[in-house]
Amino acid sequence: MPRLTRTFTDRFSHSPEGVWSAPGRVNLIGEHTDYNGGLALPIALPHRTRCAASARDDDTLRIHSLQEDSLVEVRIDDVAAGHPGGWAAYVAGVLWSLREAGYAVRGLDVVVDGQVPLGAGLSSSAALECSVAAAASDLFGLGLLDTAEGREVLAAACQRAENDIAGAPTGGMDQAAAMHCTPAHALRLDCLDGSTRQVPFDLSAHDLALLVTDTRASHALADGQYGARRDACEKAAEILGVEFLREVDMASLEDSLARLPDDVLRRRTRHVVTEIARVDAVVEALRDGDLAEVGRLFVASHESLRDDYEVSCTELDLVVDTAMAHGALGARMTGGGFGGSAMALVPVAEVERVSSAIAEAFADANLTAPVSFSVTAAGPAHRD
Ligand code: GLA
Q1: Cα of 14 to ligand 1 centre, how many Å?
Q2: 39 pairs with which residues across the strands?
Q3: Does 167 fall in a domain?
Q4: Which of 121, 191, 212, 223 is deepest in the core (most CB within 10 A)?
Q5: How many domains does the chain have?
Q6: How many angstroms is it from 15 CA to the middle of ligand 1?
Q7: Of 200, 233, 255, which residue is a domain's last?
């Protein structure tokens, strides 16, 4: 019996009714655009979080994790901002939020096994939320995994859990990726209306690989920097008289910038507007098989995040610069930034050379050793 189900049975003295899983993600491009009603282009990672679960007749959640040797017990009615704290908030928050949305959910016994690297900016929290949401949908007969609309409901419930219970003011990209991404495709996600389009993404046909590097530099979205970026975007939108910065297009960008009162708001806005334009530029370049152009757009995105949005850091810049100096077609930070992961588009034959060069550059700079791995586009949350 696999360790997950064996642990469940040992802990709760009965077998789980099933095992569900959901993936982490890397975002190819479209960073810090989701909360601006913009576009993003994530792929699902092969790394997944699994949860073994069974329904209870009462309102109690009993939550255990293979990575944390503790049992958290909480009633759904008692779940609130900051309660429970820590990783269990992502589990309990999902049940709370489904109930808030009007779904008849009850308690669960749950054991989770998180195989998405933690704190790496690869959406381990969304993977956890979405695996639990998938379990709840099946165990309580909600049927929400079966349709795209249902998956949208689950993604929204998971985002609400993260915002309201775990206290991280994130946009909805990570949860949408975990619910909608399909193998060998990137997901063109329109955060204004929630619509999605599958974009074929098979780098092996071009003898290329996507090398992800977890810098191991701390990355905490609940701290003030992420929220400060959101606030700046909302302020700029208000001054420009639009609901979201998505409504500012490239043609009107210069005029809009001229109407903003300070340099910080101008740079934040310029990042968001140019980044949204780069998403469809990447979609087109992928369609045309122009991977050199995809690489150039990755670099332009990184420079914009580094200089205008100011969410990069020494470690992320070092991955990008080292990868580019050793033959990558493009490289950029991915996810929220301030640490976490970067990725590079690298010829398959150069993957070892580029990842060794990154490791050496970190050693030379006396930084914690990074972890690099190649990824392909994997599938969404489902019952295993
Ligand atoms: C984090 C958030 C997402 C998104 C990205 C930046 O991953 O969870 O909602 O805002 O940062 O693109």
Answers
A1: 38
A2: 190
A3: yes
A4: 121
A5: 2
A6: 36
A7: 200
Domain extent, residue 120, equals 3-200
pLDDT at 218: 79
Query: For residue 360, what pLDDT is reported?
Result: 98
Measured from the CA of 31, which atom of ligand 1 is nearest?
12
124-152 pLDDT, tens digit each:
999 999 999 999 999 999 999 999 999 99
Q: Which of 33, 125, 174 to mutate to test the pocket of ligand 1 (most atoms within 8 A of CB)?
A: 174
Substitution site in 28, 32, 41, 158 for ligand 1 pocket (most atoms within 8 Å of beta carbon): 32
Most informative mutation of 32, 124, 173, 191 for ligand 1 (most atoms within 8 A of CB): 173
**Cβ–Cβ under 8 Å, residues 342 and 331:** yes
Dihedral angle of Cα 240, 244, 250, 252, to the nearest 10 degrees:
-20
How far the first Cα of the chain sits from its last, in Å, is: 14
Q: Could you tell me if residue 176 is inside a domain?
A: yes
Mean pLDDT of 18-32: 98
Nearest ligand 1 atom to the CA of 32 is 12
- Report which ligand 1 atom has the smallest distance to the Cα of 35: 10
What amino acid positions are annotated as catalytic residues? 174
Q: For residues 110 and 21, is the Cβ–Cβ distance under 8 A?
A: no
pLDDT in tens, 249-308: 999 999 999 999 999 999 999 999 999 999 999 999 999 999 999 999 999 999 999 999
Percent of the chain with pLDDT over 70: 99
H helical segments located in the chain: 3-12, 88-100, 124-139, 148-160, 173-180, 224-240, 253-258, 263-287, 291-303, 314-325, 351-364
Question: What mean pLDDT is reported for the chain?
Answer: 96
Q: Which residues line ligand 1 (CB under 6 A)?
A: 27, 31-32, 34-35, 170-171, 173-174, 221, 335-336
Residue 190 belongs to some domain of the structure: yes
pLDDT band (50, 70, 90) for residue 379 = very high
Give residue 224's pLDDT.
86
Q: Kindly state whether residues 183 and 270 are assigned to the same domain.
A: no
Report pLDDT for 222: 47
Domain boundary residue among 168, 200, 232?
Answer: 200
